[in-house]
Amino acid sequence: MQLLFLLLLLWPGPPMAPGMEDTAFPHLGESSQPLPRPCPPRCSCPREDMVGCDGLDLRVFPDNIARGAQHLSLQNNQLQELPYNELSRLRGLQTLNLHNNLISSEGEQPGPRAAPGFQHVGTARNNLIAKVPRGALSRQTQLRELYLQHNRLTDSGLDATTFSKLRSLEYLDLSHNQLVEVPAGLPRTLAVLHLGRNRIRRVEETRLQGAQGLRYLLLQHNQLGGTGLAPGALRPLRRLHTLHLYGNGLDRVPQALPRRLRALVLPHNQVAMLGARDLAAMRRLVELNLAYNRLASARIHRRAFRRLRALRSLDLAGNELTRLPTGLPSSLLALRLPRNQLRALEPQPLAGLVQLQELSLAYNRLRVGDIDLGTWHGLQALKVLDLSHNELSFVPPDLPEALEELHLQGNRIGHVGPQAFASTPHLRALFLRANRLHVTSIAPEAFLGLPLLRVVDTSDNPEQVLVRLHPTATRRPRAGGP
Predict the structure, then answer these.
(1) DSSP letter at 303?
(2) For residue 72, how many other CB atoms are within 10 A of its CB?
(3) Under 8 Å CB-to-CB from 58, ≥6 apart: which residues?
(4) In the structure, how many helices (H) and strands (E) does the chain have?
């Protein structure tokens, strides 16, 4: 069966981070009671159906494994080969974990095929596998999850039949390999396909025609560039919910994406403009992440976001914006604009954002005099405002009434007047760290009328600043400390 048992690894839960041991398998030393059943030397057998041989530097497959074993963990060893005759004896095996060994395609041994019908979760992460032999998975029709990340798989190591027989497969992780193309023959049942950190240069529509049930496609850190994702390439994926294209060198938002898309994640690319129709077809989009691209205010059309009436989260951090974009949808709950070049704020772009709860403007070049009167008036639901690391010399006036958390650290604030927070009676946390405050910089009346205030951070100022809260407050904040 060649590589079959290598890929039949039943794991009831999410994959572990590389290098982490699996907590589902107890380790040597957890019990001082004598083991009443056969157990391989140095391994742990807390139950008749469980054998854990993790992290023992094993070079040879352990013997004396009880025939009734259902869960076998051999992760973090130095196994290079698998004796399939020995594995086939364990007919009740439900979980086989071979994460982080030295198993390669050359380490295959012929042997009988596994009995079909298991509902397996397979994990062969962190090995040296370069090829899945033809037919190795053909009888595993009940396999639901397969983890092959951190191997050496290439396009020639997979063929159109490798995954086509896996009629129950829902999750396939091929990340951290050496693939140049999307594998062919993907099953219709597949819901999650992880292809991040390969060498994929082009996505062909024909490779995705069979995967019509796909909902999450992760393509981050590949080499798509400006032409690798042609318009309509994802057209077969009518149920696609989330598309990750982080770090692919894209110079514009891909066109003709599935209309049901809910999350589009495009940070760390080279997108330099947004036209009026670039996003117009994605009316169900809930999350849009365009952080760390090359967007400038002059190259964002005033109607670029207008049709995104379901949008809840918009991330434009790390671009080249000098002013707030216009035409933002009223459905927004979170707007993130840190690390741009904002120098001024006007009321019009924020008008109508009556549902906005979080606004981040950190690491810009804002001064109080450049924040127009009435800028905050439309933000009736705003609870978190981050103005940290700007050039503010005092607390901006007329802040939103619903505000609960205010970040002003890393500015040039040298004085806090008695009316500084008169408009924010619901304030709970205030961050004034690393400003220019001295002992007498904060007026004693500044925090009157703030009965909910619990945290005031004034650390890293030129002098230690002690803060007295309103007498009705039941808890004192940490003043003058981290």
Answers:
(1) T
(2) 26
(3) 74, 77, 78, 79
(4) 3, 19
Query: Model confidence over 109-156: pLDDT tens digits?
Result: 443 344 333 445 667 788 888 888 887 777 667 778 888 999 999 999
CA-based torsion, 320, 324, 327, 333: positive or negative:
positive
C-alpha angle 379-384-388 in degrees, rounded to nearest 5: 110
Q: CA nearest 196: which of 210, 207, 182?
A: 182
Q: Write down the pLDDT at residue 110.
A: 40
pLDDT of 198 > 50? The answer is yes
Averaged confidence pLDDT in the chain: 86
Segment holding 335, helix H or strand E: strand 334-336
Look at residues 67, 25, 62 and name the one whose alpha carbon lies nearest to residue 42.
Answer: 62
* Distance of alpha carbon 417 from alpha carbon 414, whole angstroms: 10
Distances (CA, A) of 364 to 343, 399, 447: 7, 18, 27
**What's the chain's Rg over C-alpha atoms?**
29
Question: How many C-beta atoms surround the C-beta of residue 309 within 10 A?
Answer: 12
Q: Which residue has the higher pLDDT, 482 or 151?
A: 151
Instruction: State how far the Cα of 436 lies from the Cα of 199, in Å rounded to an integer.
Output: 49
Alpha carbons 214 and 115: distance in angstroms, whole number: 28
**Residue 357 in contact with residue 336, Cβ under 8 Å?**
no
Nearest to 241 by CA among 268, 217, 274: 217
The pair of structure tokens assigned to 324 is 């707030």
In which region does residue 229 sit, left (phi positive, over 0), alpha (psi from -120 to 50) or beta (all else)? beta
d(CA 43, CA 52): 6
Contact 345, 375 (CB under 8 A): yes
Beta-carbon-side half-sphere exposure of residue 303 (alpha carbons within 13 Å):
5
Closest to 338 in 3D by CA, of 314, 373, 304: 314
